[in-house]
Target: CpaE family protein
Amino acid sequence: MLGPVLNYEETRGLVDALTTKHPNLGLIVVREQRSDLEDWVDELSLHAVLNPDATDETTVGLLDRLASWLIAHGHAETHDFDAPLALEIDDLPFVSTAPVTQEAAPDPADEGAFGTDQEVEIEAPTWEFPPLEAGTATEAIAVVAPKGGQGKTTIAINLATGLAEVAPNSVVLVDADLQFGDITVALALQPEKTIVDAVADAAIDELVLKTTLTHHVDGFFVVASAPSPELGDQVAPAALAELITRLRSTFRYVVIDTTPGLGEHTLVTLEHVTDAVFVTNMGVPSLRATRTEFELLTKLGLMPGNRHVVVNQVDKNSGLTIKDVEKIIGAPVDIEMPKSSAVLLASNRGVPLIHDDVRDPAAKAIRSIVLRIAPEAFPKRSKIQRRRRSNESE
Ligand SMILES: Nc1ncnc2c1ncn2[C@@H]1O[C@H](COP(=O)(O)OP(=O)(O)O)[C@@H](O)[C@H]1O
Ligand SMILES: [Mg+2]
Model:
C-alpha cells in the first residue's frame, strides 16, 4: 500500500520499481478518488485505489479480495496469507519522505565518523538578496479572514512560493499571526530569529533586519512568528507597520499572514498594503463576518486598492451556491478554492502545496491568485518545476 503522503512522481517511481522487481506483489495506492486524478491512476499498473478515509472493514475486505486474486492468478499460495498481520510499524522498512532543509547545520553527532580533527565544510548559502532596481513599485499583500481556520496560512505560503517564481529571493513572507503563527512549522523551517527581533530597535539597520529572516529553498524569506503568544503580544501595531514599510524598500513582494479578525494589528497592516486577499469558507457565520468586515473597512477608508475574494473549501454539498455566497458577502467572488486533501498532506510534509502537487485543484486555485497579482507569473512555470525537481534529486 503506497501513500497517501506520496505525491504523483514518488508514487509512479515506486510503482514502476516495484512492478519490475517484484511482479508478484499486489499494489494498492492510498489516495483520494477524484475524477481529475483518474488519468494518473490509469497510467500506473495498480491493483486498486483505496480512499485514505476508508473504514477498517473496507480495507480488510479489499486486502482479502486482492489475496484471492493473487492466488487465483498463481502469484501466491493460500498459505502465504495464513499468518496474521503481526507487524508493528517500527518493524517496517521505512522510506523517509521528510523534506531536507537546505541550510540544515551539520549534526554534531555525525562528526565522530570523520574524526573530530577534520574540518567540517559548511556550504555557503546559494542565495543572495537581489537589489531592487530604482523606481520598482513594490507590492504588499495581506491575507485576512474574520475567523481562524479559513485557509489564510495555506494561501499566504503558496502565494509567496508562486511570487518567488517571478521574483526569486525578492519575496518575504511575514507571519503576523502574532499569537498562533505556524508558517515555520508548515514549511519545516527552524528559524533562529523571529518577528520580535525584526521589530527590535537594532533592526532599523537594513543589514541587521536581513539577519532576522529565514530563507526557504523555494526562493523566499520568512519573518517567523513570535516564539510565544506573550512575546507576540509585545509587538506593537506601529512596529508591525514600520516593519512592513521597511521590508517594502528591499523586497519586490511582501506577503503578510495576519491574526484573524480586525484587531489593531490587522487594521494597521491593511493601511500599509497594496492588496488584500480575503479568505472565507462557505459557512454562513464566516460569510456574514466577511460582509461585516467589508462594511467596516469601507467605512474606515481602509479597503486596500486591490481586493481579492477567495472562497475556500468550496463544497458542492454545502447547500449554498457561489451566487448565494456573493449575495451574503455583498461582493463578487474572485477565486473558488476547492476542498482537497493535498492541502493537509503538503503542510504535513512541510512543502508548499503548489510545488508538492502541481495538478491539485486547490494548488491551481492558488496559482490563479498569484496570476492576479503578478500577471507575468505563468509562462515559466513548467520550466521552473522541472528545474526544482532535478535540483532536489542531486
Ligand atoms: N482547500 C482546502 N482543502 C482542504 N483543507 C484545507 C483547505 N484549505 C485549508 N485547509 C486546512 O484547513 C486548516 C486551516 O487552514 P490554515 O491555512 O491554517 O487556516 P488559517 O491560517 O486561516 O487558520 C488546515 O488544517 C489546512 O490544512
Ligand atoms: Mg493561520
In short: The first strand starts at residue 28 and ends at 30.
